[in-house]
Amino acid sequence: MGATTERLARHLRRAEAAQVTYPDLEGTRRAVLPDGYHHVERRVRVGHGDEVFHDARTTVFTWGMQRRAGLTVFPADIPPKPEHTVLVVTGLGPIKIVAPCRIIYTVDESDRTGFGYGTLPGHPESGEEAFLVERDQQGDVWAVVRAFSRPATWYSRLGSPVARLVQRKVTNDYLRAFE
Known about the structure:
Helices cover about 30% and strands about 35% of the residues. It is an alpha+beta fold and about 180 residues long. The chain has a seven-stranded antiparallel sheet, with helices on both faces. About 30% of the residues are buried.
């Protein structure tokens, strides 16, 4: 195990013992996102039919949206499942941000699949994000990102306008995973 992997493993162990940093668990499952947060809701059509739905489901449950957005998920070899804790790592050059998250729920229905994860202490934001794939009655397949968040650290509060721009870019990158 390399030095970086060892540091991430230590960070993960601490995160596994922590509680989520917001009270609105499963808020991304509800029709209306919770008040008091910045909201994101985007959906794009990714195609039509069973094969597209299956491929999109695979993308979601193998962390494809995160990886294709330039993020690293640690550990990446375990699919999302409730109570599973992961670290989402991003950054520019030598500056890395490690954002601990816990899988709050998964959905795996015939026409809807995906998961939602919530923030843990150390994450720059406080809230929840969902990555879903839905198939409508016509057979069209849609990728959906739903989130609510607010700054959780001094630097995310200070850089709130920039954080919203970054969030918009990352959301667009998540959805481009299906192009």
